[in-house]
Specification:
The protein is α/β, with parallel strands linked by helices. It has 2 domains: 7-62 and 386-445, Urease, subunit C, domain 1; 64-379, TIM Barrel (Alpha-Beta Barrel). Helix content is 33%, strand content 21%. Strand 9 (128-135), helix 3 and strand 10 (160-167) form a beta-alpha-beta unit. It has helices at residues 87-103, 109-125, 146-157, 186-200, 223-235, 249-257, 262-268, 289-295, 303-308, 316-321, 341-351, 365-379, 412-418, 446-456; strands at 7-12, 14-16, 24-25, 28-33, 36-41, 51-54, 58-62, 64-69, 128-135, 160-167, 209-215, 241-245, 276-280, 298-301, 325-328, 396-400, 427-430, 433-437, 440-441. The strands form 4 sheets. The chain has a 7-stranded mixed beta sheet with strand order 3-2-7-16-17-18-19, covered by helices on one side. A 4-stranded mixed beta sheet has the order 5-4-1-6, with no helix packed on it. It contains 14 helices and 19 strands.
Length: 463
Amino acid sequence: MLAVADILLRKISHLLTFDADERELRGVDVRIADGAIAEIGADLPLGRGETALDCSGLIVLPGLVNAHQHLYQVGLRCIPELERSSIAPWLAGLGRTCMRWWEDGRFTPEMVSALAKAGMTESLLGGVTTLADQHYFFPGGVTEPYIEATIAAAQDVGVRLHAGRGTMTFPQSAGGTAPDAACQSIDEVLRHSLELIGDHHDPDPLARIRIDLAPCGPHVDRPELFAACAEIAAENPGVGLHTHLYEEVDTWFCRERYGKTPWEFIVEHGWGSGREWLAHMVDAPITEIPQYADAGVGIVHLTAPDLRMGFGLAPVREWLEGGCKVGFGTTGSASNDGCNQLGDLRLAALAHRLRPGGPERWLTARELLAMSTRGSATCLGRSALGVVAVGAAADLAAWDIESVDRVGVHDPVIGLVLSGLSDRAEMVIVAGEVLVSGGRCTRLDESLVAAEARAALPIGKTA
């Protein structure tokens, strides 16, 4: 393992910076010191104590930022009876499975930790250096340390984590849509949120761990919770606000119960300050786009799960043209069946060609990679992430552009998205530490991580 502040990346074949000038550089070096980018230039001298890494044949860009995840769902992939389910029966099916595990004493913080570690390792091997997780499932209404276990797993893997304190507070018995047995009181949610902020939140621009407040959605959370979360975020620098919005179920619920759109509902309860980022947004009205841009809220595009759930394609081109902050993510594996963000970018590049308007409106590889780096980081309020610039975090991902599956590629940036048999990164660096080298983890044994996660899962086990 290479120590922080000891690295000089030499002769990078293609460096994609996503900096303010959108620079793409060839044959350059990057010096890393104290977990940050210290210098970018040609033929930089090797400093005392530095280790030079040959990056010829590699395309290097900022580490990918997954702006929406549910890591516990790594244990819920490819459930056969949910293969062709729309959102409502799919949510119910997930809930039944997890409640059964909990009732059998198997849905534990240890299980969540093992699953989170597997999902983070998979993500890291695919070039993701920062994840925004939203853990909202607290069966029995009990605040077990699921989020704390996820934070510990992130520290083991080495990735940056935005740990979202997810919630369900509006039970079916009171007019909401959440299962009664999975709901918590608002007082308990706020108590635990403040505890997490006090124990784990770091507002530093280069923080490894941050806490965000992340109600699951208007259909499963009470209006008072949204308002209380907005107040807490306003009082705690760096604490963001996150939720699902316009995911069909909440669209119908808000119109039927409140006579408002989901956006109008959250704004009425203190959201819209620029601290927020919103996931899915597939059936949001085009007429609201100027309001999203004016409020400075981020929107996370989730191609694979949106298609998996039958939602269709979100109006990403319209968001970009309207001046919105747009990021990218995978969401949880239960509706994606993986944590492969680069693979999802490829899917987005192809799927969005089905939207009206013709080729000039198709999303380009550079636009999609920008969404997945700088765009996602901006959604999270992390200006030091998602760019390669002096002073920015030394979070980098590199892929081999000289492998047999990229023979004949004329543009390595387009080739990274549209070609390649594998999305596994050759090298990944987080905060100046090389965590993936030669396509293998340096801190962890990938096979042991997978074995521990499988051992923790109740799949195929009897009580």
